[in-house]
Specification:
Rossmann fold; about 350 residues; elongated; 11 helices; 434 Repressor (Amino-terminal Domain); six-stranded parallel beta sheet; alpha/beta
C-alpha cells in the first residue's frame, strides 16, 4: 500500500507538502494549483488510501472502509431514506465492514463542507442533492477519495442517473393518451437542474402533439404535501368554473401531488374524470399506491441507484483506475386512479 513518503518521492515534493494537500490546506499554505493537481493525480495512480484518524476508528469495531453520504434533509427526506436502503442492501449482500457517515448540508453550500474532504474522515463520498453551485465547486477541485454523484452529471465524476428528458416525455404521452388536452405544470420553489429538463421535455412533447401550455398554466409552489393542498384550495377559490381550470397536472414531486389530489377530492372534484394528476415518484411507493384515489407516478428506482453508487465504491477499491461516466436507470410508469380514464391498470416499464 502506498504511503505519504512514496507519494512525496514520486512527486518530488516534501512530506509536509503532501500532508497539507491531503488535509485540504494547499491554497491556505500557498501551494500552487499545478503542484496540488500533480500530487493528487499520483495519489490516485498509486491507489493511496488515507489514514483515517484514530478518533474515528474505534478499537474493536474498526470498519475496513468509511463511506460518507452528503445530502440535504428537506422535502427529500424520504428519497434519502430509499437511497440509504439501497446502499445498506449492498453492504449486507457483500458482507462488507463499512461505516456510513451522513453529512447533512444545504444545497448550494457544499463548498462550506470543504474541510471534510481532507481525506482524514472517510475513504469515499456520495454527493446527493447538488445544485449548480455545488457542481461548480466539485468541478474546480480534485480530491484524494472517489466521489460519486447521485442524479447529477459532471465530467470526470462517476454518477448514477435517470433520464430526465424521458421522464417528461413519458408524462406528456400518458396524459395525451388518457385524453387530457389542457395540462398544467406544478413545479417547486426548491428545485434542481433535472426538474427543468423534465418540464421542458414535457412541454416539447405536448407541442409535437398540438398542445401548447400557456404561461398561466405553469405554477410554482412550495415542495410539501401541505403546499400542494393549499395550492388546490386557492386554485378552486379563484376559478370562475371547473371548465376554466386545467384538466390535468404534471407535478414536480409526489409530495405536492398527494396534497393536490386529496384537496381536490375533498372538494368533490371527480378524479380522474374532471382532473388528472401525475407526478414523479420519489417518496415511498406505498403512499402513492394506497392513497385514495391512488396516484399515477413515474417511479424513480432510488434503491437501485443507491446500489449503483455502492458498486462504484466497490470498483474503486479493486482497481487503480476508477470508472468515470454516468450510469442510467430505467423509470417505471405506474398508472393508477388519478389519471386512469381508460381502465388501464398495468404498471409497465417504458
Amino acid at each position: 500500500m502506498a504511503t505519504i513518503k512514496d507519494i512525496a518521492e514520486k512527486a518530488k515534493v516534501s512530506l509536509s507538502t503532501v500532508s497539507l494537500i491531503i488535509n485540504g490546506k494547499a491554497s491556505e499554505r500557498k501551494i500552487s494549483r499545478e503542484t496540488e493537481e500533480r500530487v493528487l493525480k499520483i495519489m490516485r495512480e498509486m491507489n493511496y488510501i488515507p489514514n483515517i484518524s484514530a478518533k474515528t476508528m474505534r478499537s474493536g469495531a474498526t470498519p475496513e472502509y468509511i463511506l460518507a453520504l452528503f445530502c440535504s434533509f428537506d422535502f427529500r427526506n424520504t428519497m434519502m431514506t430509499r437511497l440509504l436502503y439501497g446502499i445498506q442492501n449492498m453492504i449486507d449482500q457483500n458482507r462488507d465492514r463499512i461505516k456510513v457517515i451522513i453529512y447533512p448540508y444545504q444545497s448550494g453550500h457544499l463548498a462550506k463542507e470543504h474541510s471534510h474532504f481532507s481525506g482524514s474522515e472517510f475513504h469515499a463520498a456520495i454527493i446527493a442533492n447538488a445544485d449548480a453551485k455545488d457542481l461548480n465547486y466539485l468541478k474546480k477541485h480534485q480530491f484524494v477519495m472517489p466521489i460519486i454523484l447521485y442524479n447529477r452529471l459532471l465530467e470526470n465524476y462517476p454518477s448514477v442517473n435517470v433520464n430526465d428528458n424521458e421522464i417528461g416525455r413519458i408524462a406528456a404521452m400518458h396524459l395525451y393518451e388518457q385524453d387530457y388536452r389542457r395540462p398544467a405544470i406544478v413545479t417547486s420553489t426548491q428545485t434542481f437542474p433535472g426538474a427543468s429538463h423534465r418540464n421542458k421535455a414535457f412541454k416539447e412533447e405536448l407541442k409535437k402533439l398540438g398542445i401548447d401550455i400557456p404561461k398561466e398554466f405553469v405554477y410554482v409552489i412550495g415542495p410539501s404535501v401541505r403546499d400542494g393542498a393549499k395550492f388546490a384550495q386557492q386554485l378552486l377559490a379563484d376559478a370562475d368554473s371547473l371548465a376554466s381550470l386545467p384538466d390535468s397536472f404534471w407535478c414536480f414531486s409526489d409530495s405536492i401531488a398527494l396534497g393536490l389530489l386529496n384537496a381536490l377530492s375533498a372538494h368533490n372534484i371527480k378524479i380522474p374524470d374532471d382532473i388528472g394528476i401525475i407526478s414523479v415518484g420519489s417518496i415511498e411507493s406505498m403512499f402513492a399506491r394506497y392513497n385514495y384515489p391512488s396516484l399515477t407516478v413515474i417511479d424513480i428506482p432510488i434503491e437501485k441507484m443507491g446500489e449503483g453508487c455502492y458498486q462504484f465504491i466497490k470498483e474503486s477499491r479493486q482497481t487503480v483506475v476508477q470508472q468515470i461516466g454516468g450510469v442510467f436507470y430505467e423509470t417505471k410508469l405506474c398508472v393508477r386512479d388519478s389519471t386512469n380514464r381508460k381502465g388501464d391498470t398495468t404498471e409497465s416499464i417504458l
